[in-house]
Queue: 2 jobs
Job 1
Amino acid sequence: MSRKKELLSRVGLRLDGRRADELRRIRCKLGVFTQPDGSAYIEQGLTKVLAAVYGPHQVRSKQKAQHDTCIINTQFSMAVFSTNERKKRPRGDRKSTELSMHLQQALLAVIKTELYPWSQIDVYVEVLHGDGGIYPACVNAATLAIIDAGIPIKEYVCACTASLGNNDIPMLDVSHQEEVIGGPTLTVAALPMSGKIVLMEMSQRFHLDHLPKVLDKALEGCKDIKAILDEAVKNHVREMGSSTGWANTTS
Amino acid sequence: MSLCDAEKTFILHGVAENFRSDGRDREGYRPIEIETDIVQHAFGSARLRLANTDILVAVKIEVDTPLPERPFEGKIEFFVDCSANATPDFEGRGGETLAIELSNILASAYKSPKTFNLKKLCILKGKKCWKLYVDILILECGGNLFDAVSLAVKAALFNTKVPLIKSVNIDGDNVELDVSDNVFDCERLDVTNAPVMVTVCKIGDNCVVDPNLAEEQCSVGSIVVAISQEYFSTVTSIGIGSLHAQTLCSSLELGQKVGIRLNEALMDTLSHITSDQDFGFLK
Amino acid sequence: MPVDHKRINGPEESVPYELFARLSGLTSEKAFEQLYKAGKRSDGREFEEHRKIFLKNGAVSQAKGSAYIEMGQTKVIVSVFDPREIPNRSDYSLKGELYCEFKFAPFSCAKRRLHQQDNEEKQYSCIMKKALESAVCLHELPNFQVDIYALVMHNDGSALSAAITAAGVALVEAGVPMYDIITSVTVGIQQGVKLVDPDSLEEQMCQVQFLSEKYQDNNHGLLIISKLHTQEQLCQFYQNGYVSLEVLKSGLEVLSKTCEVIVPLVQKCLIKHITNGIKS
């Protein structure tokens, strides 16, 4: 079975008509809810994620409190109708626990935790529609929600997936369809401005020689995403501030 | 949310004057927004915002075997998930009690054949039937969950398209279903009698509908009524507090009156929704 | 549903053999017709007559308070345990809490029940908790939780009402401060006929809508109330089915009246408990 061929057509187009280095359409919005301190919604292609941030607030279980940093509590959950096959439970399975932990790691890298001793920040992400690249969408949504909550961060943390098509062409932002057909998937969460990598995960295999170029591609993707998120944040702030009139004076 | 006595008195007086803290009268609802068809994977879906209560409902359909004691009927199952996005209290298993309460009331309200006819969902007697999974996701809660959930469920069921079965082949014990290839070939569910729930909340000496979070705090007892046409399909008391029989009767009357009106408004709105009004969360 | 590995599980799905035997052959509709013609119920009761009740406290020696109730074939045992600190709670709560667990024994119904609580049982636990919460002086038990377990040993209708009434007695025996005596009654409605304290066949009869032409009345359903009798307060109310406002109101009256009938019984049981206590 020549399944590798199917990922990229002869003219270099992918199954959904994208080019190899093209991201899916990203649409996002900050401040979708009023009750949480920060919230965001992101759509990457068909993958849709909601994120909400509560805090910083007092630590709920006193034993966990730390005198020099704040603890970051994350919960990943997936709506039961988010996948083609109905899920039995929205959370609590091994995969969602793992994703919660990975999300926590990514956020710990950017949040200035030392500013909030004895406190806690809750980050909840809810996947409404899963279509490949769930983890990256969650990280991006969480970043936006944290910015919306006004929690100081060192820089954006963005995540992106990359794959290898036709055995040598790196491809960006893998969709569910491409995941199923079976290309290797490299997930990278990075700080795009300083170029640091927070988390890297790989499924399936390719030759080590390919790793640098696939990784480069993923990092490039992170940078692109960062630009999009940055634009959204600026728009949001401009909109929020326009009622006071100050946005007009700066631009 | 906890209120001090002064705040409670303020709300109490407002209700007594028939002028509540947000300007409504006792029978008034807060603004409601409904969108349908916003989950692509599902057979029917709706999102409802009642002030800042936010509910997302999706209906999935699977083929199942009917219960042996009810061979002519399909199945319907309600599953409520309280997302931690709504409040940190729902984290982990924190929302489970509320979720069970909600799904039980829904199941009880949809149980009577007069409210929702499960016989339409039977494909082949005793062998095959459709099972509707109604999955409710609570994204934000700003009071009055029961009403919001029931309205959203009704809207989602209204929006649901059941695939059309062209033929059924029986080969011994094997049953093969031939589902129509055309995606647009589908049946709608009949939801005209589907119940609408109204929470009637007693504050001071009066009853109000659609309490917000602050008003829920001041209540001395509340009941949820599920109204299907002018009949009651489920009534249950919620929260701590007891009522006098007289009060119960008057709140039942109020619930019925408001429920009928609410149902009319909902059906009217649903019939006006066209498929191109899709905004989702980006609005 | 997760499977309990600690015990030997019966088959997950089973079908009562009566379904295939067609021995009874009595559909709900026919049964109702018989009942309607006779003007009396199968056990000789009037429509609005409660079954005989046997109520006894102190059935479980390990529990702080307990009660055993029999209503016809329905047999329920309720036990109440010592107040204890609310588990898994970090903040101090000024009010006490109740924990209710309502369970049908595996052998109690026509269909075998599993050991774990199913949705119906969870709903009943919820209703029971609601009823008892308004009867117990929760402010006198700050930061404490009282555990109440109801086990139905034989379900022949109105099991929830029986459990709530018995729980009231058990709570008194456990010495939990209460506002009032709590009683609970179920009524089934079909075609305008109100069947007080229905047995399981009548309960089934009230859950369906009759198809034949001669039954034009759509009303059918179950009503359960719990009442605190001195204050005439309804501390819990639950209805399902399809019932109009007028029928609901008249049903409410019937229920209130029947609750009053039970009260002396409960009082008698409690007095007996006290006099026995003094004697010994």
Job 2
Amino acid sequence: MALLQISEPGQSTAPHQHRLAAGIDLGTTNSLVATVRSGIADTLPDADGYHLLPSIVHYADEPLVGYAAQKLANSDPLNTIASVKRLMGRGLADIKTTGTRLPYDFVETDAMPMINTAAGKLSPVQISADILQNLKQRAEKSLDGDLTGVVITVPAYFDDAQRQATKDAATLAGLKVLRLLNEPTAAAVAYGLDKNAEGIHAIYDLGGGTFDISILRLQKGVFEVMATAGDSALGGDDFDRLIAEWIMQQAGIAEDAEHQHIRQLLEIARTAKETLSTEDSALLNVKFIGWQGELNQQQFKQLIDPLIQKTIMPCRRALRDAGLTVGDINDVVMVGGSTRMPRVREKVSDFFKCEPHVDIDPDKVVAIGAAIQADILAGNKPDDEMLLLDVTPLSLGIETMGGLVEKIIPRNTTIPVAKAQEFTTFKDGQTAMAVHVVQGERELVTDCRSLARFELRGIPAMVAGSTRIVVTYQVDADGLLSVSATETITGIHSEITVKPSYGLEDQEIERMLKDSLEHAKDDVATRTLREQQVEADRVINALRAALKIDGDRLLKQDEFLTINTALDQLLKLKDGTNAQAIKRSIEKLDEVTKEFAARRMDASISKAMKGHTVNEFMEN
Amino acid sequence: MSLSANHFELFQNAVTFEIDINKLSESYRNLQRTIHPDKYANAPERERRLAMQRAAQINEAFQTLKNPITRALYILQLQGINTNDEYHTTMDGDFLMMQMELREQLAEITQLEQLNEFLSRIEQYQDNLNQKLSQQFAEENLQQAHDSVRQFQFFNRLHEQALQLEEELI
């Protein structure tokens, strides 16, 4: 029972103004876009009626995405890029050691991997952006309007570099990301709202390329992720590969077969896997060497059981991290196309000792959950009480003496989170200090993923040990890291944007964005102006609503005047054509309302707490 | 509330070791429902940043108070006791002896059943320490409480190692 309605200061949208928002499931094998229309969330089909968009891009003159690209996979493998999600936020060395055979022409580089294609050297971020662009167009066409924002889902197990790469791809595609949402959480949203099920849920998500297990608690509209674990390099593709390798063995095909042949073998393997979901055996027909064979249920189980077993270990770990046992789990939700395999369902059901939920199409459930969350974040449901509290999937630490890791933020910490750490200099007159941030659970730096290296410079030269440098690590609600440092004696402050080692620099994104706009013959200046105008409207609307509610209560006369003057100035400028002037005016307004914003936030916190006290009083 | 409020003040709770976790969780959810950055998805950049800082502070406070060890350490720090003092680690000889014996026992475990029996013994020790801490804090016996927390930490590490072994045995 809600006794006190708490006003949401951030969501002061005008009534009846529906904002177009979408949820995007950017998958390894397939991608989808969904939206909420007339209160119902569903995925959007393309012009031919297909909901799934194969995550495949073919590069020639113009990028081709989806089924059109898939058709060219065999004839032009080097220019047809599939499963690019596996490359996001990864270095070339990582990609080679995952054991995944990717038949592309990689450019040798220490930085972000690039693939040589007919359209030039392309990064995984650019390729993902092309997929997103396609979904964006699909959504805007069927909704007949521009999207104000999207929620994009990522595997819960994605590290900082992979999340950053995903967000960069969205920026490149011209999408405003309202939130990066963990896939299992999205699935829980899709189910939770349908059934209003309070309790503890396990979300078992076996997709094309990744496996995630999450333990969530749903209580009074708040989804709390209690723990998450998984394997970012295990999915349906691995089942296919295993079957393909078995066929190669049976048929005596050499390991270094041509790209084209490997593709065909993977296709045969995938079909066999799907057949075995309903049939006792599958016929195998390898045309290019004229070999025929059969894979029966027993052989199939023998092949795939070890892979399924590999998913059970993370389930155990997640339960343990959540401080729970199997008996505490109320139900299990199945997500991802690979959970269609009856053997997978059987094994999961054995482990959790309950029948898993499969009611919502496992391919669509994530996109649907993302659409529901996007609708709420866009401000279309101001009274909705739903809140998603996610956690960090991996521990965050820094390198210390001897290549050891000191953990700063342990895995499964609820985000957003900020942790401060104090350093001092160890040499007289030392003015710089190197910090190496890593992510992972192991004790040695070399066994963890390097996120970023940076140097703190401009430390005042003093006797060793007499400076105090406080470094703050912050992980936001999207799971992205930022670091800031302050020398506490002199108060020198420096903000460090942590860009993952295999990420794109901001300037690069800006340049690519500009290139792609020019390519689309769009006018950069017009676009910049429109962006500033939209931002100005956003700021003005939010401020007006805030002033109406709290202006009299929280502002002194002179403060009110200062804010009004700045507001008037922005109102005058915003319909003009000078983007720079609008930008400066927004910044000015932002500066003079800083204190007001902080006061409002604290007031709403106090109000929430009072609501709580009233609640207790009524109950007792 | 302000950034300088202590964790207990944030949840309008008196500074006590004994705490109603259900009530604490409910306050926590109420606060996050108000302040989580998702509630500010359409707000200007500055407000979003502020919301993130506040939400992080509330998360930190909740995590600290939820767990008995961090809660105890936090109360001790509020009382001006230096809990980071690494020189002050003289432990009771009998206790160290017992720890060594427990570690030896753990090292010899090869069966899952043995491990489960071992785990429940450790959990019993942890429960006892929890009760002991309640009493010591109620009697404002801070020095003794500090000793109990350190013992608690020993058992926690042991418990963690035992769980790691579980992963290997399965």
